[in-house]
Amino acid sequence: MQIDPAATAWLLVSTAMVLLMTPGLAIFYGGMVRSTGVLNMIMMSFIAIPVVTVTWILAGYSLAFGADAGGGLIGGLGHIGLSGIDLTAVRSNVPELLFVTFQLAFAILTAALVSGAIADRAKFSAWVVFVALWTLTVYSPVAHWVWGPGGWLASFGALDYAGGLVVEIVSGASALALALVLGPRIGFKSEAMRPHNLPFVLLGVGLLWFGWFGFNAGSAFAVDGKAAVIFLNTLIAGCLGMLGWLAVERFRDGHPTTFGAASGVVAGLVAITPSCGFVTPVGAVVVGLAAGVVCSYAIGWKFTAGYDDSLDVVGVHFVGGVVGTFLIGLLAAEMVSGGPAGLFYGGGITQLGKQMLGIVVVAAFAFTVSFVIAKVIDVTMGFRVTREDELSGIDFTQHAETAYAEGVHGQQHKRPGS
């Protein structure tokens, strides 16, 4: 296979765009927490960049995209430390080292997404250990199932263009597991815990939206009509997600909010991620609108069920990922997908069944393994900060810094011994 210069140039740009999404997520999440936890929240995203990079180079890429080691469950060890890959290696018509980096950017973002569920109460050191173990035992196997050579879900026929299963459902199910292991924040249900900086939230979602075009359209590994459709679908779904969420707020609460607008955009983008390369622009309208409406209601589930998913990773990413992955079974159009069609396009219910199986299996696997990892970390080194540290502010207790000169009670924090 020859390297395609145009595809390579587009993937270089797309990779940079996807890498930008993690700092964008850090700002998005940072604005959503209280003022005493903003630095810690941002750091939880930023630390994922080096930790996942090292883990991915050492073993993660080989486990995800190496030759199948049997049964479609995990890749082999042929690329440990990126062995066997040089400047001349080609994958999907681009240099394989670029393919490695593009997929690495996905892994980084997925790990960072999980952190939103445990804002304001996790030990930073425990989070670092969790990210490294999770990349190898949760993300890499699922990536192999869906995108790797010989992956069993791909062979079965479950479709996921850019990460509904691999990114969104994996991160959402893992987030739920961590929220259950750590337990709710002090004051959950009794205190408002509102976002401390809505401009940060909107800036963050703007960076995410920009990066998402590389996330989805870059996954085409080509500069062609398919990439153009995916690009447009991504824009449409983000817009309709916002409109759907704001409509619910207007009907339910009496007023649309900036926070709702940002959340709706993310919900629409999450849902179009798995379906962007399979649905028409009309289908993208349905996907985005459905995600905006459903996710706007789903974020309230945590109060009923009693789990404290601080920044609604479950309600937006898990539920949005389920919506988008499920709707492939209804809305996939052969003219876009080049293959299977959904129920509404004459394909019958077969694809719908495959999508549902993928959702259930990936969610169950990600939740179970993440729960075990988090529980082991909690027992051995402790995953949650002390009550005193949580009440005094996790930024200061974990990093000896504060984002703002004045603390939450109007007193300036000082470093120990100063």
Automatic annotation (TrEMBL):
Q: Which UniProt keywords apply?
A: Ammonia transport, Membrane, Transmembrane, Transmembrane helix, Transport
The compartments listed are: Cell membrane; Membrane
- Show the stretches that span the lipid bilayer: 6-29, 41-64, 97-119, 126-147, 159-183, 195-215, 227-248, 255-272, 278-301, 313-336, 356-377
- Ammonium transporter AmtB-like domain location: 9-404
Q: Which InterPro entries match?
A: Ammonium/urea_transptr, Ammonium_transpt, Ammonium_transpt_CS, NH4_transpt_AmtB-like_dom
Gene Ontology MF terms: ammonium channel activity
Write out the GO cellular component annotations.
plasma membrane
Cite a single Pfam family from the UniProt record: Ammonium_transp
Its membrane topology is listed as: Multi-pass membrane protein
As given in the record, the signal peptide range reads none
Q: Gene3D superfamilies, from UniProt?
A: Ammonium transporter AmtB like domains (1.10.3430.10)
The family note in this entry says: Belongs to the ammonia transporter channel (TC 1.A.11.2) family.
**Full protein name:** Ammonium transporter
Q: Which organism is it from?
A: Mycolicibacterium bacteremicum (Mycobacterium bacteremicum)
